[in-house]
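Our consortium's second objective concerns turning raw sequence data into structural hypotheses that experimental partners can test. To show how far this objective has progressed, the report includes one record in full. It was chosen at random from the queue rather than selected for favorable results. The single chain below, 112 residues long, was entered without modification.
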Amino acid sequence: MMHLVDSARGALKLYALHLRHPGTVSADQAQAAGQDALTRLDLLHSSDLALAEAYAAARAAVPAPYTVAVAPGNAQGKNLMVMVLDGPHLIQTVFGNSPQGIVELLRIKGVA
């Protein structure tokens, strides 16, 4: 099964290929791939995307050899919790409302 992001990227590439070379990929094929990708993207919740964005931002900010774990910060999933680990040892935990806020807090705490 194709990953969600790969499916969306593939659909965009099919559209581009159809526009550049209309005989290579039919409009129906490009539209079907695009519709499938949109249907799959609609299954994502905004809290899922926020967790993925927080992970990517924290991972980019935290130096090796530390690792990063991300979780919802509350039951509603509105806050984000990022934990910085050195192997099995917890180095820092920060809570924030956005990936940018998480990175700033990591910088303030001296982890990023």
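The partners drew two points from this record. The beta strands are 67-72, 80-86, 89-96. The two ends are 36 Å apart (CA to CA). Both points have been shared with the crystallography group to help prioritize constructs.
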